[in-house]
## 1
Amino acid sequence: MRLIEITPDLLTGVEEMDNQHKRIAEYINYALDLAAEGKVEDAIAFYRETILPFVKYHLSSEEEFMESIGYPGYEEHKRYHEAVLKLFTQLGKELTDKKSLQSTAYILSGWLYGHVGKVDKKYGEFYKEVCLKNT
Ligand SMILES: [Fe+2]
Ligand SMILES: [Fe+2]
């Protein structure tokens, strides 16, 4: 099942970050596939052991990237990350069955669409306008 896909309008133009966003989307789809096949325990383990650590890794790589380019929206962006990481960690602890797994996957994909489209793309624009022009 393809619940989420990183479409061209969601690309930041920073290749590494775009690849990480795509990977998160693939992971969400995979967890939903597992759940749909009745492998709910596997899907929950996949969320806790693979998705959540990768999301954490992604958020910190993004923060490092923003710092490295002197992005002015860094502090605010980091606060969004901190809040959402708390939420996804909490949701991970509360996973018990197919329904909770699916709703967590929907929340995560909704966040990914909104955050990438509205917040992440801004560092992409800054990178293109300020950093690439000066090279
Ligand atoms: Fe991101
Ligand atoms: Fe972000």
## 2
Amino acid sequence: MGDNPRRSFLYTMASVMGAAGACATAVPFVRALEPAADTVASGVTEFDVSTVEPGMMATVMWRGQPVFVVHRTQQMLESLYGHDELLRDPLSEAIPEVQADWMKTKEQRITRAIKPEFLVVSGVCTHLGCIPAFEPDREGGGDMPKDWPGGWHCACHGSNYDLSGRVFKGVPAPYNLFIPPYRYLDESTIRIG
Ligand code: FES
């Protein structure tokens, strides 16, 4: 990550969101927020991750952008392994925005979270800025590829991400979902930004 991770993140996100207009007209914004598991907490930069039930996802609005907080179960964490060959950037090495200063080990580059059970990741598709739908079940849906490990599907142009927000090969999105700057204020409260 560069000297100013927040500025770098916002600059890149602004570029992505700037391209989102054309996408949003093609697929209604509401469509991308359909997942029943979502809890939406608007206008906050501090969030108690313990309020997210195991296996569920909350969407926290930060600087006008959605940030996904997923309480990953042990099964979900195990699902992160064994499909590297399907991923474009399995260790999040492509650009600084997919990394974080605290990502020191291979394990951290796979789980992509300060506390592995709580993923905090940008909810903006790195293709043209749509909001991917949460598809945590391994069975997946009609649009999911075979052997779907769980993750997100962006209906705009068919990009897929696993449960660490790592993008699959062969889809339009070029990068893993970005990691926003965040830290823990106490055992379960995060401050994003
Ligand atoms: S915006 Fe095109 S696939 Fe997500």
